[in-house]
Amino acid sequence: MIRSRKDWLIFGSLLIVTVTVAPLVLSDFRLNLLGKFLALAILAVGIDLIWGYTGILSLGHGVFFGLGGYCMAMYLKLQVGTAGTYMSDLPDFMTWNGLTELPWFWKPMYHFWAAMLAAIGIPALFAMVFGYLTFRSRVQGVYFSIITQALALVASLLLVGQQPYTGGTNGITDFKEIAGFSLAESSTQKGLFIATVLCLALAYLLCRWIVQSKTGRVLAAIRDAENRLRFLGYDTVGFKVFVFTISGALAGLAGALFVPQVGIISPSNIGIVPSIEMAIWVAVGGRGTLAGAALGTLLVNGAKSALSESFPDIWLYFLGLLFVGIVLFFPEGCIGILRLLGRRFRWPARRSTPRPSETMLPNGLEELGD
Amino acid sequence: MTSTTFLLAQLFNGLSTTSILLLIALGLAITFGVMGVINMAHGELMMLGAYSAYVLQNIFVKYLPEHYFGYYFLVALPVAFVTAGLAGWLLERTLIRRLYGRPLETLLATWGISLILQQLMRQTFGANNVEVRSPGWLTGQLSAGAGLEFPYLRLFIIAFTALSITLVYMLLFRTSLGLKIRAVTQNRAMSAALGIRTRKVDAYTFALGSGLAGLAGCILSLMGSVGPTTGQNYIVDAFMVVVLGGVGKLAGAIAGSFAIGEFNTLLESFSTATMGKVLVFALVILFLQWKPSGMFPPKVRSLD
Fold this sequence. Notes:
Oligomer: heterodimer
Order of helices and strands of chain B: HHHHEEHHHHHHH
Order of helices and strands of chain A: HHHHHHHEEEHHHEHHHH
Distance between the termini of chain B: 52 Å
Strand content of chain A: under 5%
Helix content of chain B: over 70%
Number of strands of chain A: 4
Number of strands of chain B: 2
Radius of gyration of chain B: 20 Å
Strand content of chain B: under 5%
Largest interface: A-B, 44 and 39 residues
Shape of chain A: globular
Strand order of the largest sheet of chain A: 1-4
Structural class of chain B: mainly alpha
Number of helices of chain B: 11
Number of helices of chain A: 14
Strand order of the largest sheet of chain B: 1-2
Helix content of chain A: 55-70%
Shape of chain B: globular
Largest sheet of chain A: 2 strands, antiparallel
């Protein structure tokens, strides 16, 4: 959390180092991997905003991520033009599914900025409508989680089922260029990496601004005692819809940055399993600490790409134990462990932080401001 | 086919879907509905039941004379119940009891358990789906004339579901264990004060719900091949049933699975299987606008 000038200094130097040094030091493959993780970190920061700060656990964020990703994929696919396998204007999967004309909702995606706008706007709009309908009927806690999980299932089924329009199980892949730059070029990938880092920094600052504002206090109050807040005359539905919309927009942005770097989006990025994994990234880093969400994303995904390549059998056990272990033993995640170490070794404390156990907050989530 | 027979056939298919859904949701109605525990590993407990049937089938084929084969499924049912029940009991003793009152944490931890169980089953039985052969007395069908045919298998499932519900009702409302279960879920502190060992009751209740999951998995294995991730496909449906029906009452689970089962078959017959599911989900969301706590909302005086 940024509070002092020193924190700004850390944030700024971290940003500059990532943008300048990483592209020079890392190989193209590693840089691409890091770029992918940082794109996912944007989504994780958005999840932390609704889960860590507002107490809403969404198990359907893959859907918002996917909406953004698919919008970007549609644009990239249309950029291929007649250079595809079938020498046709249409994306290859439409040709082999017998479509002769581009569906109407694909047409605006010829333009880069229209696609970017859609990649952020459509998930935001969808999150707003879905959030309004569920929060209004006071679907709370685990019920909300279950319903969003069903949403993730339905969305992935729908994408698989509508193969002529969405590419079905295979998803959309085989892209050539973005805004005139070839995706195969190392310089394009470096540009995408830098764009991702900047977007993550902006997303972090936006969320930080929200949680430190008065709205942020209301959000934390919703997490801790929503009914009391309602009795005090607050429109909690409005606040929840607002924060859910922001979170959906961030997930869409993450999807739009993920696709050109990874080169594919498919229903397997969207269903139940990837969506619930997103929650564990945040939990590993530490709920209610925006930086922790990003850190957790890097750690879990780094472990995944290291373990699942060499020991695919062990990875699932590891992930399973991670879910159990974090919940049972480290509910505050990595940031919590770091803080604990800091206290144990009497590192000079910046300000006196009450121990989580002394506050009334559940699971020692981060306390609210000073 | 006339419209009446079409309607009857649809109704029967819906009823058959309903009964499978209900059997799956029955265990959840105990663990989630009565105890308030979100068990994401419920699907994997079902698979334990399904694999029990598979193992017993192989044992019967290998070690017993051919004419005994028809009975294997009757042995498989209690074995599935006990296996899944024991696994559930173990799960409650080691993990879930540390997390009471923290439903979101329970959800994540049990998801972790489900991943571990899936991988265990994958390494034990292989990643491919396995076939469970129906015993001879379940093949064939009852002909009702006018092109209407009722497969014995589906009739058996409907009857078995009805029997299970009756037994669960009897257990909850006619035995002393049932009385204790209901007492503990209604007022834990008061039950403890009256000398009920609430921790023990918790473990038994969870084992009961898990055992029912095992039974559901055993029945499910008759419907098609089963694999390590088959259970995961059903878990969302089962949770939707409990959310739609309302938490805390078995009648809710019955009504919820009836609504989802019948609507699913009906909508499927007019469109595709996927669209059927999408439409049912949309209908559930719309229904919750009207009745936020489901069809049979629990009566409570307090908020939250």
